[in-house]
Write a structure and sequence with these properties.
Blueprint: E1 30-41, E2 44-55, E3 59-63, H1 70-77, E4 85-90, E5 93-94, H2 100-106, E6 108-110, H3 123-129, H4 137-143, H5 145-165, H6 181-193, E7 199-203, H7 211-226, E8 230-234, H8 238-244, E9 247-252, E10 255-260, H9 262-265, H10 269-276
Parallel strand pairs: 3-8, 3-9, 6-7, 7-8
Antiparallel strand pairs: 1-2, 1-4, 4-5, 9-10
Helix pairs in contact: 3-6, 4-5, 5-6
The structure holds adenosine-5'-diphosphate and magnesium ion.
The site of magnesium ion has 3 residues, from α1.
Pfam families: ABC_tran, BCA_ABC_TP_C
Keywords: ATP-binding, Nucleotide-binding, Transport
Domain ABC transporter: 32-278
Amino acid sequence: MSSNPASPTPVKSTGMHVGTIRAGVAKKDPILIADGVRRQFGGLVAVDVEHVEIPRNAITALIGPNGAGKTTFFNLLTGFDQPNEGKWSFNGKSLAGVSAYKVARMGLIRTFQLTKALSLLSVMDNMKLGSPDQKGEKLWASFFPVLWKKKEIEIETQALNLLKRFNLDTKQSEYAASLSGGQRKLLEMARALMSKPELVMLDEPMAGVNPALTQSLLEHILNLKSAGMTVLFVEHDMHMVRHIADWVIVMAEGKVVAEGPPGEVMKNPAVIDAYLGSHQEIDLGTITGRISIPKSGKEK
Ligand SMILES: Nc1ncnc2c1ncn2[C@@H]1O[C@H](COP(=O)(O)OP(=O)(O)O)[C@@H](O)[C@H]1O
Ligand SMILES: [Mg+2]
């Protein structure tokens, strides 16, 4: 569990865009498309995204300085907040006005920057809440107790398999409150998978995670892609972004200011400006440096 051999360099997806790389560039197979999505809080325009497309079955990092509007954009896309204007679609279906619960059922699930694991529920109960079949519990149980029992066993088996994958199975009966910050992040990711999503949006999955768990979290994110899912994640750690992202989208002051493959985007002056203001001599790779990724042959 603890000994992680140097992880191999992940296989990056390439050629996902159409035409010249620039902010808002079209994708060959976008899973999510947003157009003119704008959210204002009083006089502050938190999000003002003209056009953005998220490539399917790839790992896209959404980066940008604090206050850039990343979390607000996540909230809008997943139905946890409503924009003042704009439209966006998932798998070609409009999501405008669709509630967070329905968005999740359609296959788009997100985790939160601050974990929402319910402290006074057990780890297993937290997992069960992630199941889309949980909603009808009372109705099912009252009319068809036998069928419900069968469904419940199915849900528990699925939960236990996921907990095993995330090394949390031994904690299944403990309160979520007893988990470390990193374990809660793992629990949140495991719970998100209960609904068998197609697009998983992770808001700062590494924040507050003990270095001992970061490698395992990284691998879990890479596994989502191998399992056919699409990942969009917010992250400040540029080492991690470089290591696992196929594509990077940069937000600043509510707008998408640049996008592209990680190596190229991080050399873009607009990106360096957005992050560093006048301190352009600093290497973006050292901004956080919370985790160290074994260097691949190609990376400098
Ligand atoms: N509910 C809210 N009410 C007022 N202002 C908000 C609210 N949520 C976010 N903001 C503001 O919107 C801007 C973008 O915030 P946020 O989306 O959290 O940025 P990021 O996640 O990129 O750090 C910030 O200036 C923040 O203070
Ligand atoms: Mg945020």
